[in-house]
Specification:
Layout lengths: L5 H5 L1 H9 L2 E9 L5 H11 L5 H14 L16 H6 L6 E6 L3 E7 L7 H8 L4 E7 L6 H12 L4 E7 L8 H18 L5 E4 L23 H7 L12 E3 L2 E6 L2 E7 L4 E2 L4 E5 L3 E9 L8 E2 L3 E6 L10 E4 L5 E12 L10 E6 L2 E15 L4 E3 L9 E14 L6 H4 E5 L6 E10 L1 H5 L9 H8 L4 E6 L6 H14 L4 E5 H4 L11 H20 L3 E5 L5 H9 L6 E7 L2 H7 L4 H6 L21 E4 L5 H15 L5
Parallel strand pairs: 1-3, 1-4, 4-5, 5-6, 23-25, 23-26, 24-25, 26-27
Antiparallel strand pairs: 2-3, 7-15, 8-9, 9-14, 10-13, 11-12, 11-15, 12-14, 16-20, 16-22, 17-18, 17-21, 18-19, 18-20, 21-22
Helix pairs in contact: 13-19, 15-16
Length: 634
């Protein structure tokens, strides 16, 4: 590596010691396709002398073979490492690179310019302190420039450089530069970017990258590297109230119990009063423990273990916070959501929500609108598609401690995870708790589920019948209820068609309405189980996610899934209601098995093959299974 500091060769220990105390700045480059993001980062690495000699030799060889600069060094190849990136000359994934100068260390994220990779840009921006938004001087402010600028503003990045690149291709024209700055200024003001630094440059030629450019004497501002070195970012988190999400309850022996985590903001000292959220219990910090020994203080960015004076219940996912200025606790929120997944977002569908170290079940209860990032217009929306951005209401199955994202990224930023595939499907920013969540509290009741079950001489339970239309669910469920009723059991049958005449009469058959249909029925079934009833639910319920949601509303052993397994051909042959014929004729849209999917259970407790069992025999087999499983306890 070409020596970036003479100390590396003369006194390596002195160099490393000086390196330890340098501040670290995380920033990203973003903008439209071919604006020169990868070339800029390659130039920064090259000019800061962070390239090993063998890397430089490989770069020169690759530039001749794959480069776009006529045999000259193509700095973009330092960053674009994927074969597809080099073949197409574009950035696909987020590439992170480290470099340093005498003043500061840097981690830079090179983010994709294509709209289809917007989700990758959000990933790169989520940890950034600053953003360098590139613009091709020949093209000016483009759609993706606006999209990425909107996301930069949304993610709370306050330090923005507008890097107007490829000035060499417009004759180093100040007039071109001034016009682009004026155009961008109007848009920036509308999206909340209060200030930005505009820098004319040529990443390929090195103008205004590390040193002022002789080709643009009319520009009297800083080159990009000096702007990055001088940004004040170090003390912002330490000035905020103390927050530490608990990562691990540290219990190496009977004599020690501590709570480990990364301090997200603020500072803490032994003797400080803290509050544990969401429980609200308070205590005093006794010790701040690290492998190197106890500390007199811990601040944002440090990983520590805290011990408390009182024996209070603290678990992974809880937040230890400054007692006089704690975060809020709620289970319903307004949030901005960026959708990452090819499969669209469905209101009412349960996802996993990860915020800090806490993971809870969450639903988008109401999409309020989506944002057209070009016009900033708010558009009505029932769903969000890939890369769309919307404002939604969220609810979680448990109260969580949070701060608005604008105040604390660690306690205000979250991701949504698909419960079946474990894919990250969205990322969001919490705005505030909905007032309704603050006005509603659980009312203590003297007669509980156990008392109601004892009165009826049975345990409440849900027997959930799922299968294609025409599979025979309702027929079998009706026979099962008759047999249970004859035995003196207290039952109720919720049938899909019957419920749509009342409770769910406002719902159609879109994916969104199907999800809401099952969500309502699952909640009703839970109330009936609480009342001590055996509830038979007969619904197509085509999606595994919603059936899992219904199961997780109940206690272990209270949910029995019965898969009425009938091949599509057989169900269509029966077609008792004539629905398949209408669907095939195009008169019924979103019909399960024809133009809407059915996801069969993977681990149903009971499977009924209706090609082998008549309805009465199937009902008898189900009752026999229930008896054998011991789920109908007296």
């Amino acid at each position: 590596m070409a020596h970036q500091s003479a100390l590396i060769a003369e006194d390596i220990e002195a160099y490393l010691k000086a390196h330890e105390v340098k501040s670290l700045l995380r920033f990203l480059t973003c903008g439209s396709v071919d604006d020169g993001k990868s070339t800029l980062i390659g130039r920064l690495l090259y000019d800061s002398k962070m390239i090993f000699e063998d890397q430089l030799a490989a770069l020169e060889a690759d530039s001749k073979r794959l480069g776009t600069q006529g045999g000259e060094i193509d700095f973009a190849l330092l960053v674009d490492g994927l074969a597809a990136e080099r073949e197409q000359g574009i950035t696909i994934d987020v590439a992170y690179r480290f470099f340093s100068t005498d003043k500061r260390k840097f981690i830079v994220a090179d983010t994709p310019g294509h709209e289809q990779y917007t989700r990758n840009m959000v990933t790169g921006a989520s940890t950034a302190d600053a953003a360098v938004i590139l613009i091709d001087a020949r093209k000016g402010v483009l759609t993706q420039t606006k999209r990425h600028s909107y996301l930069v503003s949304l993610l709370g990045i306050r330090h923005v450089a507008l890097a107007i690149n490829k000035m060499d291709l417009v004759g180093w024209s100040q007039q071109v530069f001034d016009q682009i700055v004026a155009d961008y200024h109007d848009f920036a003001a509308r999206i909340g970017i209060k200030g930005f630094t505009a820098i004319p440059m040529s990443a390929l030629k090195g103008d205004n990258i590390t040193e002022p450019s002789a080709n643009m004497a009319w520009y009297d501002g800083q080159p990009l590297m000096r702007w990055l070195e001088d940004l004040p970012v170090e003390d912002e988190l330490q000035a905020k109230p103390f927050r530490m999400p608990v990562q691990w309850v540290n219990r190496p022996n009977l004599d020690f119990r501590g709570f480990s985590g990364l301090v997200a903001s603020g500072a803490i000292r032994p003797g400080d009063k803290v509050k544990v959220l969401p429980s609200g219990r308070e205590s005093i910090v006794e010790r701040i423990v690290t492998l190197a020994g106890d500390l007199p203080q811990a601040a944002a960015g440090q990983a520590v273990t805290l011990t408390l004076q009182d024996e209070i219940d603290v678990s992974r996912g809880d937040v230890i916070a400054e007692a006089k200025s704690p975060p809020a606790v709620a289970d319903q929120f307004e949030a901005t959501l960026v959708w990452f997944d090819d499969e669209h977002m469905l209101p009412g569908r349960p996802y996993l929500m990860k915020l800090g170290t806490r993971t809870v079940s969450a639903q988008v209860t109401e999409p309020k609108y989506k944002v057209n990032v070009n016009t900033l217009e708010h558009l009505a929306a029932k769903r969000l598609e890939l890369n769309e951005i919307g404002v939604v209401n969220l609810s979680t199955d448990a109260a969580i401690a949070f701060d608005p994202y604008a105040e604390n990224k660690d306690l205000g930023g979250f991701i949504l995870i698909d419960r079946i595939s474990n894919r990250t499907v969205g990322a969001g920013l919490l705005h505030f708790a909905l007032r309704r969540s603050q006005n509603i509290h659980w009312q203590a009741l003297d007669v509980d589920k156990r008392a109601r079950a004892a009165q009826k001489g049975q345990a409440g339970q849900v027997i959930w019948f799922t299968g294609l239309s025409g599979a025979g669910k309702s027929t079998i469920a009706n026979l099962v209820e008759k047999k249970l009723h004859a035995e003196g059991r207290h039952t109720y049958l919720l049938d899909g068609d019957n419920v749509r005449h009342g409770l769910n009469k406002d719902l159609g058959f879109t994916e969104e309405d199907r999800v809401e249909n099952i969500r309502r029925i699952a909640e009703v079934a839970r109330l009936m189980v609480d009342a001590g009833l055996i509830v038979l639910v007969s619904f197509i319920s085509p999606f595994r996610a919603e059936r899992r949601m219904a199961r997780e509303l109940l206690e272990p052993g209270e949910f029995v899934e019965v898969f009425v397994d009938t091949p599509l051909e057989e169900a269509e042959r029966r077609d008792v209601k004539g629905l398949y014929a209408k669907a095939r004729a195009g008169e019924l849209k979103n019909f399960t098995g024809v133009d809407s999917p059915y996801e069969p259970p993977e681990h149903a407790e009971i499977r009924i093959d209706t090609t082998r069992l008549a309805p009465d025999a199937a009902a008898e087999a189900i009752v026999h299974w229930l008896d054998g499983a011991g789920d109908r306890r007296s």
